[in-house]
Specification:
single chain, alpha+beta, Nucleotidyltransferase, domain 5, Taq DNA Polymerase, Chain T, domain 4, Alpha-Beta Plaits, 4 domains, six-stranded mixed sheet, four-stranded antiparallel sheet, 51% helix
C-alpha cells in the first residue's frame, strides 16, 4: 500500500494563522484533532500544542506551551494558550461538527482539564482498527503502517530516548511541527480508510466501542477513593507474613537460601531434596515458575509455601505498596486507565493500577478491596452479573434443559449435579455441587478429562464419565461446541453476540498444542466476548441514565462482570433500581439476565452479597 506522498504542515503561531485555521475548521466535513502535552497523566497534562487536519495531505499545528530549555534559548513564538483555547472552544464543543482522532479518550480528558468538553466525536481510528482486527497493536504507528503504508515519525526522534528524553514542552517548535501535524493528518486518513473498510461492521464502532470510550473517559476522570492508611497497615501485615513464610520455608528446606533466586530454589528442590518431575530451561537451569511449583505443591511443603510467599509479595508490590503512590494530590483519588483496544476477546483491561487482577477469592485480595471506599456521605453499590457465561451458553446452544434451569431460577450447579449423579435436587451434596461447578465452568473453557481429573482429584476415567453425564443432560451444548469449531476452522475466527471478532490464526495449525489452544479459545471466546459485549452496552446505558436521573451518582469501577457506582447514601435505593433495570435489559437473551447488587462503605462490603 503506497504512502500518500508529501504532506503540507502549517504552523499556526500568529493571529492570521489562527483565523485561517478557524476558517478551515468551520468549512470542514470532518475535523481530526490531537493534543501534545506535558504528561500522559490526564490530571497533570498541560497542553503544549494542538494539531488539526481537515483534508488529506495537510496538517495544522498550534503551539501554545513550548518553553525555552535554558536562558540562552529564545522563547518560541506562539499564541497565548488561553486565547487559542477560547477561540477553539466553540468548535471543539459543537456536537454538530464531526471530529476524529486516535485514542480520543485521552484527549477528551486533557481538554476537560483545560475547561473544554470535546463533543461531536465521530470516529476514533484506534477503535476502528480494533474492530477490524482485535489483538493487533492499535498504536498509531502500527495502524498507520498497516493500513496506509505510512511510517510515522517516532516520538524518540523529536524528544530523545531514555535518560536524555526531554518533555515535549522543550521540543523546538520546528521539530514538533511535522511530528504533531502528522498525528492529526494520519488520524484523518485512517478514519476514512477504516470506516470504508469495515462496511456493515462499522456499527460495532458506532454503537458500542466509540460511545463506551466516552463513558470510560468519565470513569477515569472520576477515579476511586482509597484509604491509604488501611493499605499501609496491610502492607506491614503482608511484610510480616512474608518474613514468617520465609522462616517456614527455610525450616522445611533444612537450610537457608534466597527464596527470590530461581537458581537456588531449583537446586534445592531437585538436587538437594530430590523431588521428581522437574524440568530444565534452555539455559540448563531448573524451571521454578508458577506452573511448575503448582505441580509440586502436593509433593513437598517448600513449593507450596513458596507459592504463598510469591502471591503475597505480588499483592504487596502491586497493590498495597503502589496504590497509595497513585493517589492524585489534587483529586485525592486513584485514576486507573482502561485499555479498550488490547484484549482479543473484547474484555477491558486496566493499568496504573491493574484492577482486574485483585483476587476476590483470597482473604488477602478481599482485604485490598476494603481500601476502596466511598467518600464521606456517599456509599458504594457493586452490581455483578450472575453466571453470565453459563447463561450465554444456554442462549447460544439452545439447550432446553439448561434454559429451563435458568428460567426456573434454579441453582445451576446443583441442577447439573442432580442430573449427572441421577439424584433428586434435594439429595445433592456439597461435594456433588462443587464438582458440578468445576464441570460447568470447565466446559466453557474446553477442559479435557485430564484437566477435570486434576481439578476434582479423581481418576481420568471417572472424570470422563462425569463429562459424558454432563453432555447427556445438556446435549445441545455439545452440538454448539462442535458447530462453533467447524465454523471457526472455515472462517478463521469466531464472533460474539454483538459482532466482535476473535481471530484464530492457529485453528488449523499442524502443531497439535497450538491448534488445541485455538480450539479451546474458539469455544470460550464467544462466551467471554459476549459477556464483555453485554457489560459494555450496560455501561453505556447506565452512564446515560445516571446523568439524566441521578446526576450525583457516578460509575467509578469496572472489573470483569461487575460495575461499581458511588452515590450519596440517601440515593442508594433509587440508584440500585436504575442499575438493575439498565444492566438486566442490556440485551435480550433466551434466558433471564440477573444482577446481584450489594451496598456498603467499601468495595469489599458492597461486593459481599
Amino acid at each position: 500500500m503506497a504512502d500518500a506522498g508529501p504532506r503540507s504542515d502549517i504552523l499556526v503561531n500568529n493571529e492570521a494563522g489562527l483565523a485561517g485555521l478557524l476558517d478551515a475548521l468551520h468549512k470542514a466535513e470532518l475535523i481530526a484533532v490531537d493534543t501534545e502535552t506535558t504528561s500522559l497523566n490526564c490530571h497533570d497534562a498541560e497542553i503544549v500544542g494542538l494539531s488539526f487536519a481537515v483534508k488529506n495531505g495537510e496538517g495544522f499545528y498550534v503551539p501554545v506551551g513550548h518553553r525555552a530549555r535554558d536562558l540562552l534559548d529564545e522563547t518560541p513564538q506562539q499564541l497565548p494558550r488561553e486565547d487559542v483555547l477560547a477561540a477553539l472552544k466553540p468548535v471543539l464543543e459543537d456536537p454538530a461538527r464531526p471530529k476524529c482522532g486516535h485514542n480520543l479518550k485521552y484527549d477528551t480528558q486533557v481538554f476537560r482539564r483545560a475547561g473544554i468538553e470535546l463533543q461531536g466525536v465521530r470516529f476514533d481510528s484506534m477503535l476502528l482498527a480494533y474492530v477490524d482486527e482485535p489483538g493487533q497493536s492499535a498504536k498509531m504507528d502500527n495502524v498507520s503502517e498497516k493500513y496506509l503504508g505510512h511510517t510515522c515519525i517516532a516520538y524518540e526522534e523529536v524528544a530523545g530516548k531514555g535518560a536524555k528524553q526531554i518533555n515535549f514542552a522543550h521540543v523546538p517548535v520546528a521539530a514538533a511541527l511535522p511530528y504533531a501535524a502528522e498525528d492529526a493528518e494520519v488520524a484523518l486518513r485512517l478514519a476514512g480508510r477504516l470506516a470504508g473498510r469495515l462496511g456493515k461492521r462499522l456499527s460495532r464502532h458506532d454503537d458500542i466501542e466509540l460511545p463506551l470510550s466516552l463513558v470510560l473517559a468519565d470513569m477515569e476522570w472520576n477515579g476511586a477513593h482509597i484509604d491509604a492508611g488501611q493499605l499501609a497497615a496491610l502492607s506491614r501485615r503482608f511484610g510480616e507474613s512474608i518474613a514468617d513464610l520465609e522462616q517456614r520455608i527455610h525450616a522445611a528446606a533444612g537450610q537457608a537460601f534466597n527464596i527470590q533466586s530461581p537458581k537456588q530454589l531449583g537446586e534445592l528442590l531437585f538436587d538437594k531434596l530430590g523431588i521428581a518431575g522437574g524440568k530444565k530451561t534452555k539455559s540448563g537451569q531448573w524451571a521454578t515458575g508458577q506452573e511448575e511449583l503448582e505441580k509440586l505443591a502436593d509433593e513437598h511443603e517448600v513449593p507450596r509455601l513458596i507459592l504463598e510467599a510469591r502471591q503475597l509479595a505480588k499483592l504487596k508490590s502491586t497493590y498495597t505498596d503502589s496504590l497509595p503512590k497513585l493517589i492524585h494530590p489534587q483529586t485525592g483519588r486513584v485514576h486507573t486507565s482502561y485499555n479498550q483496544a488490547v484484549t482479543t476477546t473484547g474484555r477491558l483491561s486496566s493499568t496504573d493500577p491493574n484492577l482486574q487482577n485483585i483476587p476476590i477469592r483470597s482473604q488477602e485480595g478481599r482485604e485490598i478491596r476494603k481500601a476502596f471506599i466511598a467518600e464521606s456521605g456517599n456509599i458504594l453499590l457493586a452490581a455483578d452479573y450472575s453466571q453470565i457465561e453459563l447463561r450465554l451458553m444456554a442462549h447460544f446452544s439452545g439447550d432446553a434443559a439448561l434454559q429451563q434451569a435458568f428460567a426456573n431460577g434454579e441453582d445451576i450447579h446443583a441442577a447439573t449435579a442432580a442430573a449427572v449423579n441421577q439424584v433428586d435436587l434435594k439429595d445433592v451434596t456439597g461435594d456433588m455441587r462443587r464438582a458440578a461447578k468445576i464441570v460447568n465452568f470447565g466446559i466453557l473453557y474446553g477442559m479435557s478429562a485430564f484437566g477435570l481429573a486434576k481439578q476434582l482429584g479423581v481418576e481420568r476415567g471417572e472424570a470422563q464419565v462425569f463429562i459424558a453425564g454432563y453432555f447427556a443432560q445438556y446435549p445441545k451444548v455439545r452440538d454448539f461446541m462442535d458447530a462453533t469449531l467447524e465454523a471457526a476452522r472455515v472462517k478463521g475466527y469466531v464472533e460474539t453476540l454483538l459482532g466482535h471478532r476473535v481471530m484464530l490464526p492457529e485453528i488449523n495449525d499442524k502443531n497439535g498444542m497450538r491448534r488445541q489452544y485455538a480450539e479451546r479459545t474458539a469455544i470460550n471466546a464467544p462466551l467471554q466476548g459476549s459477556a464483555a459485549d453485554i457489560i459494555k452496552v450496560a455501561m453505556i446505558r447506565l452512564h446515560a441514565r445516571l446523568k439524566a436521573d441521578a446526576p450525583d451518582a457516578r460509575m467509578i469501577l469496572q472489573v470483569h462482570d461487575e460495575l461499581v457506582v458511588e452515590c450519596p447514601a440517601e440515593q442508594s435505593d433509587a440508584v440500585a433500581r436504575i442499575m438493575r433495570a439498565e444492566m438486566e435489559s442490556a440485551v435480550s437473551l433466551n434466558v433471564p439476565l440477573t444482577v446481584d447488587i450489594g451496598t456498603g462503605p467499601s468495595w469489599f462490603e458492597a461486593h459481599r452479597l
